[in-house]
Design a protein that fits this description.
Layout lengths: L1 E8 L9 H15 L9 E4 L2 E5 L6 H8 L5 E10 L3 H12 L6 E7 L9 H16 L2 E2 L6 E8 L2 E5 L3 E2 L11 E5 L5 H10 L4 E8 L7 H17 L1 E8 L1 H10 L5 H20 L3 E3 L12 H8 L6 E2 L7 H11 L2 H4 L21 H8 L4 H11 L1 E6 L5
Helix pairs in contact: 3-4, 5-6, 5-10, 7-8, 8-9, 8-13
Length: about 400
């Protein structure tokens, strides 16, 4: 009995003729995720699943944790590989359950390999009867305390007792690049994660007002990017100084339009970075009606300066839903800490909630937009992140 980890594919099993492209990228990502822990040659498989063949010395907990971040996997299962033999299935299940305490059990068998003559239901009955006698327990097919899974495939069989839920979605890297406007708050990290889950590689852009705001937002954003890099393995973070842009807007435009004008400049700057990075779209953490700048009219007027699509994964979500995902992806505890948001710096007392595009255009006519744009992009600092760092 050799220890193995079985990786079931998520929605790429529904793909058609281009399925092999998705499988190839997913296999590459799995090998990257466990780099330094598992030799790439120990990973094989294809249609619907990959198999990691482990040595007894492999650091299993670390391997399982890393694999839980890989988009494109439905679940991750730690078990053993055995010969296609019912007696071997029984002995493997016995070993897996030897230190467990339970009163009820069921056996679930899948038999894609039809060369194995015994039907799935017959395997379930034989192995289930054996385990019930060995552990003095009863069968329960609906809500058992323990479940033994058996997969009979490609001349081998795999036996395991638990399925760890995978990250789901599409493999990172199959959908092109996007640029995400990232703050230290709850929303934009979750929006970035949701777009990653659709296979996009995310480049992060953070706007700051240093030195008039503290270092906190930059430090928190760096921590957030480190967490999110676990899902896409390589990240790039642009730290864009925004103070000069804000000062010009404060000096030369009406107070009520400040936040909208800030956002329009951010979109222009993010687009310039997108062109440089050959990205396909922008991503923001905006939700309709959440704050003054996110009314439908203001969103429309902000989007007017964009030539790239602006993706808003949170547009229909409420704050509780967003925070629940932030907890799940482990950015919540960072985002809940106080920080200085550059959009809150020099913000108006009464921001415009239903802006007029003619007034916005008139206000922007007082700004040297191209000069401000070029200065911000040229002065941006770039940081790179890699996971796992020992790769």
């Amino acid at each position: 009995m050799q220890p193995v980890i079985i990786l079931h594919h998520h929605e790429i099993v529904l793909k058609g003729e281009n399925r092999k492209y998705f499988e190839k990228q997913l296999l590459k990502n799995v090998r990257t995720a466990v780099g330094g822990l598992v030799n790439s040659s120990a990973i094989d498989g294809g249609y619907g699943r990959f198999i990691l063949h482990l040595d007894l010395t492999d650091i299993t907990d670390e391997i399982l944790e890393r694999l839980s971040y890989v988009f494109g996997l439905s679940n991750v299962c730690y078990g053993v590989s055995v010969e296609q033999n019912v007696e071997k299935f029984c002995q493997a299940a016995l070993k897996i359950l030897h230190d467990r305490t339970f009163k009820t059990i069921r056996v679930v068998t899948r038999r894609p390999d039809k060369n194995f003559p015994t039907r799935s239901m017959e395997v379930n009955a034989a192995v289930g009867e054996f385990l019930c006698k060995q552990f003095n327990v009863h069968a329960n097919l609906s809500e058992p305390d323990e479940t033994i899974f058996i997969e009979i495939v490609n001349g081998e069989a795999y036996v395991y007792r638990a399925k760890i839920k995978g990250a789901g979605g599409l493999p990172s890297g199959v959908s092109g690049k996007v640029v995400s406007l990232l703050s230290a708050g709850f929303d934009s990290p979750v929006a970035s994660w949701q777009i990653m889950k659709r296979g996009a590689s995310v480049i992060f852009v953070h706007f700051h007002s240093m030195p008039y705001t503290s270092q906190n937002s930059i430090d928190q954003v760096k921590q957030i990017v480190e967490i999110l890099t676990r899902y896409q393995f390589n990240s790039k973070l642009y730290l864009v100084p925004f103070l000069d842009v804000q000062n010009e807007i404060v000096l030369r435009t009406p107070q009520s339009l400040r936040v909208i004008l800030y956002r329009r400049m951010m979109i222009r700057i993010a687009e310039a970075i997108s062109r440089k990075e050959k990205a396909e779209a922008l991503v923001t953490g905006e939700a309709v009606g959440q704050v003054a700048s996110q009314t439908l009219r203001n969103i429309r007027n902000i989007d007017q300066v964009a030539t790239f699509p602006i993706l808003r994964p949170l547009s229909g979500m409420d704050k509780e839903e967003t925070i629940a995902i932030a907890r799940k992806i482990k950015t919540h505890d960072i985002s809940k800490e106080p920080y200085d948001d550059c959009c809150s710096f020099l913000a108006p007392r009464k921001p415009e909630t239903w802006s007029n595009i003619e007034k916005i255009d008139e206000a922007e006519s007082n700004l040297d937009i191209q000069s401000l744009l070029e200065k911000a992009v040229n002065e941006a600092k770039i940081e790179r992140y890699i996971f796992p760092s020992n790769n």
